[in-house]
Design goal:
Number of domains: 1
Mean pLDDT: 79
Oligomer: single chain
Radius of gyration: 18 Å
Helix content: over 70%
Low-confidence stretches: 98-105
Structural class: mainly alpha
Distance between the termini: 32 Å
Number of strands: 0
């Protein structure tokens, strides 16, 4: 078993990392503000499903391929960068709409879950990060390494879900104001487009 103090230290680090600005939490923030809490929560669920896949891959050693194979890393990297550019295009082309009444817009929630999954899975740096981060909190003396990494990965997912959920709630409180102001929507969409385009370029020109 992983000692309590080690697990608590891991949870603290995971929570802090979940709040570091990146494509995942920024997407949750903008979608929650623009479309409401249900949409933000759907994106969060999708992102966390992606994290679960990364956890399983790393625990079983699959992610080591991306660490040792430049070609495999580059392929997934460019797919991820292209998807981020697609999100930037969607954001810049999004038309502001004045909406009254209840929140959560007209976006199909299942589509937002899928979008969250794709965002997470097409970023090879998540797998590389897990491969570098999780083993630091494991030890052969505590038993099966794979089980330890699965437990740590699940803990990371829980911390990320809680953090993204809080971002959803905080941003969602502004949703009504945002969705009734076309000027604010336009500003948020353009900001989101700039952020995603910047992240896409950083990912495209990054190294392992």
């Amino acid at each position: 078993m992983i000692p309590t103090e080690t697990l608590l230290g891991f949870m603290g680090a995971a929570t802090l990392l979940a709040w570091v600005p990146g494509p995942d939490n920024l997407f949750v923030l903008t979608q929650s503000a623009l479309s409401g809490r249900k949409v933000g929560l759907s994106v969060t669920i999708g992102l966390c499903i992606g994290l679960i896949v990364h956890t399983i891959a790393v625990s079983l050693g699959v992610a080591a391929i991306f660490q040792t194979s430049q070609a495999a890393f580059d392929l997934l990297k460019y797919i991820g960068a292209a998807y981020l550019m697609y999100l930037a295009y969607r954001a810049i082309m999004e038309k502001p709409t004045r909406i009254s009444g209840t929140e959560d817009g007209q976006k199909p929630l299942r589509h937002m879950i899928v979008r969250g999954i794709l965002m997470n899975l097409t970023n090879p740096k998540v797998a590389i990060f897990f491969l570098a981060f999780l083993p630091q909190f494991t030890s052969p003396e505590r038993g099966n390494i794979t089980i330890q990494m699965l437990l740590l990965g699940l803990t990371f997912v829980i911390c990320a879900f809680a953090s993204f959920g809080l971002i959803t709630i905080l941003a969602g409180t502004l949703s009504h104001w945002v969705r009734t102001s076309t000027r604010v929507q336009l500003w948020l969409n353009r900001t989101a487009a700039l952020v995603f385009a910047t992240l896409a370029l950083r990912l495209a020109f990054s190294n392992q």
